[in-house]
């Protein structure tokens, strides 16, 4: 059973634009929602994470918006740069459980 | 401070063979989780080791087994390899705290190709 659904599969954004990636989850026991960035040939790197007690978290150009009632969360990349071109994964887990459930990934391309 | 390291980087095996992959966690971390990432997919949780014991397991057959050593490093063993086992195998380390959200740090992975 797929527990985290991610969209879109691929996304092309112009330099300076806003990139938006969405995720929806099913398991209401999830209470930790990280986003990972993965470059080709590399392992996923933690980008930003949010807990359901807040609706938004911002770190630099990256913002997570969280909607607990809709069981949805999204990643916004402001002023997107060519160096942001990578595959992005949302994930979810329960406190202390350690097991991460990943979405399918979004391949982001930023055109110069 | 070294991050998570994995070896080997790449590996080619034939069907039916056995393979062992290795992982050293980030300094200060005591928990190791293994994930399988098929091409174009998100990582899938295989299992997690803490205090040298398997603590959680994902939906993977018994052909997948592991071990954690006293220095917290870990091995992933896969027996009777199938073509479908071809994937990037990722190791993630974390510090197991009871009342915390445990950030997991991933290694670069081992690319396994089964012919």
Account of the 3D structure:
The complex is a heterodimer of chains A (112) and B (115). Chain A is mainly beta. Chain A is 0% helix and 53% strand. Chain A has no helices and 11 strands. Chain A has strands at residues 4-7, 10-14, 19-25, 33-38, 45-50, 56-59, 62-67, 72-77, 86-92, 101-102, 106-111. The mean pLDDT of chain A is 93. Chain B is mostly beta strands and 115 residues long. Chain B has strands at residues 5-7, 10-13, 19-24, 31-37, 44-50, 53-57, 64-68, 74-78, 87-94, 105-106, 110-114. In chain B, a hairpin with a 2-residue loop joins strand 5 (44-50) and strand 6 (53-57). The mean pLDDT of chain B is 93.
How many alpha or pi helices of chain B?
0
Order of helices and strands of chain A: EEEEEEEEEEE
Largest sheet composition of chain B: 7 strands, mixed
How large is the radius of gyration of chain A?
A: 13 Å
For the largest interface, the chains and their residue counts are:
A-B, 28 and 31 residues
* Alpha-beta classification of chain A: mainly beta
Number of strands of chain B: 11
| Termini gap of chain A | 39 Å
Mean pLDDT of chain A: 93
Rg of chain B, Cα atoms, Å: 14 Å
Largest sheet of chain A: 6 strands, mixed
Report the β-strand fraction of chain B as a percent range.
over 45%
Number of H- or I-type helical stretches of chain A: 0
Write the H/E string of chain B, N to C. Answer: EEEEEEEEEEE
The SS-based structural class of chain B is mainly beta
- Percent strand of chain A equals over 45%
Provide key terms for this protein.
heterodimer; A: 112 residues; mainly beta; five-stranded antiparallel sheet; 11 strands; B: 115 residues; seven-stranded mixed sheet; four-stranded antiparallel sheet; 50% strand; globular
């Amino acid at each position: 059973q797929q527990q985290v659904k991610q969209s879109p599969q691929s996304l092309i954004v112009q330099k300076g634009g806003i990139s938006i990636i969405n995720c929806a989850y099913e398991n209401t026991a999830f209470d930790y929602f990280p986003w990972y960035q993965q470059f080709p040939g590399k392992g996923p790197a933690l980008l930003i994470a949010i807990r359901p007690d807040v609706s938004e978290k911002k770190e630099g150009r990256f913002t997570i918006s969280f909607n607990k009632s809709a069981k949805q969360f999204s990643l916004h990349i402001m002023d997107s740069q060519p160096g942001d071109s990578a595959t992005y994964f949302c994930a979810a887990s329960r406190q202390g459980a350690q097991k991460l459930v990943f979405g399918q990934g979004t391949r982001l391309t930023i055109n110069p | 401070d070294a991050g998570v390291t994995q070896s080997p980087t790449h590996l080619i095996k034939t069907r039916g063979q056995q393979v062992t992959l290795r992982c050293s966690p980030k300094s200060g971390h005591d928990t190791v989780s293994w994930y399988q990432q098929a091409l174009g997919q998100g990582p899938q949780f295989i299992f997690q080791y803490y205090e040298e014991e398997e603590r959680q397991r994902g939906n993977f057959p018994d052909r997948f087994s592991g071990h954690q050593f006293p220095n917290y490093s870990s091995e992933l063993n896969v027996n009777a390899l199938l073509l479908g086992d071809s994937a990037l195998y990722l190791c993630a380390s974390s510090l197991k705290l009871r009342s915390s959200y445990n950030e997991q740090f991933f290694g670069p992975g081992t690319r396994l190709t089964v012919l």
